[in-house]
Design goal:
The chain is α/β, with parallel strands linked by helices and about 675 residues long. The protein has three domains: about 190 residues, no CATH class; about 260 residues, Rossmann fold (3-Layer(aba) Sandwich); about 190 residues, no CATH class. The chain contains 26 helices and 22 strands. The strands form four sheets. Strands 7, 8, 9, 10, 11, 12, 13 and 14 form an eight-stranded parallel sheet that branches. The longest helix is centred in the middle third of the chain and has 21 residues. It is globular and about 75 Å long. The termini are far apart.
């Protein structure tokens, strides 16, 4: 365990840190030497020249300052480094140099703004002091340096050229009042990031550890270390093992899985990890949009990094490298459907394992699509059989969620347990005790021959079963502003008015939730809330067929890659607020701000939610219990996609349209009003 602890120990945040007077007195060549030593990549002459110019500019600009300077300060949540952070007097200054750029772009402005927001939200000693982001570019000629701070004391970015920097910094120092920050305490304060899954994947792919990109008060690093220890033990013993990791929504199960898949294994290493080539582990998910978005995000990042090093690469080659360790579970399954070869990976991580397909769903699909008749495996049984073919050792990691089932034919976690109990007595099992909790067995399918109680009894009596407390993630890290959002959503959907109202009161100051009946008002609200590169978008249920009069047609498929990754100028991106993504496109992914457009498929009634589907020319009641559950879970997914806040839009009805009468929408709107949600008009 001691060797594995190094895997989760954070690296120093800055490549160079010193009191400002010491920095000014130190020879530039020596500072360059420290930066060069901290740099893990080949250093080109161009980068060295840029650093040298920045150092000279800073020495002149900070001549009258006391405090500390940090160069190349790492922001692992978004996988970048700030050129310079100055902690002086009562304020924090975030400096980003664009010395070679010929024009000032909104992207560059957002970049330094993002850095400032990141410090404010995730660095403990930066929560209260004012933070001033500065973009330095020789082409800037403006002298508009008015200090404009938002309520959290993050100022709007100031644009300055190299000659103006000293004057601007001194003006800021004269205008900003407050208690002087202790630079050493500031440096020692914990950095507690909460990355979204795209940011986390990018950071892990670049070599950051889980501890660097997860908050200290979450248990992701501890769970990751425990899992690495199990993998190492299994490898050393030449055995096979399966692990079941549970966690509350947003606790970081996928983050743990991605960390394992992005770190290569080396049998000759004490820790089991080898830097460099990635191999022998694969992250598998049946969530097609999640796989597509992560693959494209990492491939694009790799292209950018290569370009910065003066190298070129085709995007297709970058995508292929990423697909070596992030794959769609269905394609993986299809490749080994004959069970006549062992997969190359020693470790397979199955995301949302409880959503694997039953044999009843898989058999006709394999017969129709893959021309494989009489396929007699469920997906869990088949995937275990694949890994069992490895002649040396193998580890399966099942990431198990609850309350997220939005489609029929999902196997439930019981079929994984049955397969091991009935067919693989030599496999070691490492189980979170929370696996027994009802939320993980809610989707247990009727075709299982054993009840939940019978499964658990056999599990407890099995000699090769270990119950591991570190395999449960108990703390949500999804919303860094309010961890009680899930509680609010749960109470809202449970029609527990008092609990929902109390939960909303607890989060309202940090996590705004607005209510409106005007979709354009909702769009305006999103744009007003977003800062820097905050991403926002419209979401709606896949059953929301009568939003079409509001120019939202959910039957038009959204491409999640463009929707989640492309910029404000792309009409296909979420920023454009034209296309609404459904629960199928957003599950497992997140935005900063969302608008949930609520249709007549889920309607409030005092005795309980009424669930409807639109068929032909009218709404019809959903009678099937599973389909009712899937619709409620669809809204659960939609209501938990925003990290910073959301607006809910319940349209006005139209008495001239029998499919959109006011009686369909008004009760839902009035119920949401009763929870204390503020209205925007």
């Amino acid at each position: 365990m001691q060797a594995l602890t190094a895997l989760i120990r954070p690296k120093p945040r800055a490549w160079y840190s010193a009191p400002i007077p010491a920095f000014i007195a130190t020879q530039t060549s020596r500072i360059l030497g420290e930066l060069t030593q901290a740099n893990q990549h080949e250093l080109g002459i161009e980068q060295r020249n840029v650093w040298e110019e920045e150092i000279e500019i800073l020495k002149f600009a900070l001549a009258k300052f006391k405090g500390w300077l940090h160069l190349e300060f790492t922001i692992p949540r978004i996988g970048h480094r700030v050129d310079a952070v100055v902690v002086a007097g009562p304020a924090i200054y975030v400096l980003e140099f664009k010395l070679g750029d010929q024009k000032i772009t909104q992207e560059a402005r957002n970049q330094v703004w993002d850095y400032a927001l990141d410090l404010k939200n995730f660095h403990q000693s930066s929560h209260k002091p004012p933070i001033i982001p500065l973009l330095i570019n020789p082409q800037i000629s403006t002298r508009d340096w008015a200090l404009l701070a938002d309520t959290d004391q993050v100022h709007r970015p100031l644009l300055v050229n190299c000659d103006q920097l000293r004057e601007v910094l001194e003006r800021c120092q004269a205008e900003i009042q407050g208690e002087t920050i202790d630079p050493q305490k500031w440096q020692a304060a914990p950095y507690q990031p909460t990355p979204n899954i795209i940011e986390a994947a990018r950071a892990l792919y670049q070599g950051h550890t889980v501890a660097e990109i997860a908050r200290d008060d979450t248990d992701t690093a501890q769970t990751t270390a425990c899992l690495w220890e199990i993998i190492q033990r299994t490898r050393n013993a030449g055995e096979k093992a399966i692990c079941f990791i549970t966690g509350v929504p947003g606790a970081g199960k996928t983050l743990v899985g991605l960390d394992i898949s992005t770190k290569p294994l080396d049998p000759s290493s004490e820790t089991g990890i080898r830097p460099g080539k990635r191999e022998h582990a694969v992250f598998l998910s049946g969530n097609g949009p999640l796989v597509a978005v992560l693959t494209e995000a990492l491939a694009r990042d790799e292209i950018v990094r290569l370009e910065q090093k003066g190298e070129s690469e085709r995007i297709g080659n970058a995508r292929r490298r990423v697909k070596a360790f992030i794959q769609n579970v269905h394609r993986y399954r299809d490749e080994y459907r004959e069970l006549n070869q062992a997969p190359p990976e020693h470790v397979a991580i199955f995301d949302e394992a409880q959503r694997a397909w039953t044999q009843a769903r898989l058999q006709p699909w394999m017969a129709r699509r893959k021309r494989v008749p009489n396929f007699h495996y469920s997906e869990p049984e088949f995937l275990i059989a694949c890994m069992d073919q490895r002649p040396d050792w193998a580890t399966i990691v099942c990431l198990v969620g609850g309350g997220q089932e939005i489609n029929q034919g999902e196997a439930g976690i019981g079929l994984w347990l049955e397969a091991i109990l009935n067919h693989y007595p030599d496999w070691n099992m490492y189980v979170s005790k929370r696996l027994r909790h009802h939320e993980y067995f809610l989707n247990q399918q009727n075709q299982n021959s054993m009840s939940t109680e019978e499964l658990w009894q056999r599990l407890e009596l099995r000699p090769r079963t270990t119950f591991e407390p570190n395999l449960h993630l108990a703390v949500s890290m999804r919303s860094f502003r309010a961890e009680k959002v899930s509680e609010f959503v749960d109470a809202l959907l449970a029609l527990d008015q008092a609990r929902a109202k109390n939960a909303h009161e607890a989060i309202a100051a940090q996590y705004p939730i607005a209510l409106t009946r005007d979709l354009q008002m909702a769009r305006n609200w999103l744009r007003q809330q977003a800062r820097g590169s905050d991403r926002y978008g419209l979401v709606a249920s896949s059953k929301a067929y009568r939003l079409k009069p509001h120019a939202i047609d959910i039957r038009v498929d959204v491409d999640p890659v463009h929707w989640f990754l492309d910029g404000r100028s792309d009409t296909r991106s979420s920023y454009y607020l034209e296309d609404a993504a459904t629960e199928f496109q957003v599950q497992g992914l997140e935005l900063d701000w969302t608008c949930i457009t609520w249709d007549g498929d889920l309607r409030y009634h005092r005795e309980g939610w009424h669930k409807h589907a639109f068929t032909g020319e009218k709404w019809t009641h959903i009678r099937n219990a599973d389909r009712q559950k899937y619709l409620l879970n669809a809204y659960r997914v939609l209501l938990t996609r925003a990290r910073q806040g959301m607006v809910i839009c319940v349209p006005h009805g139209n008495e001239q349209d029998p499919t959109r009468k006011r009686e369909i929408y008004d009760p839902t709107f009035e119920y949401l009003c009763s929870l204390g949600l503020p209205q925007i008009n």
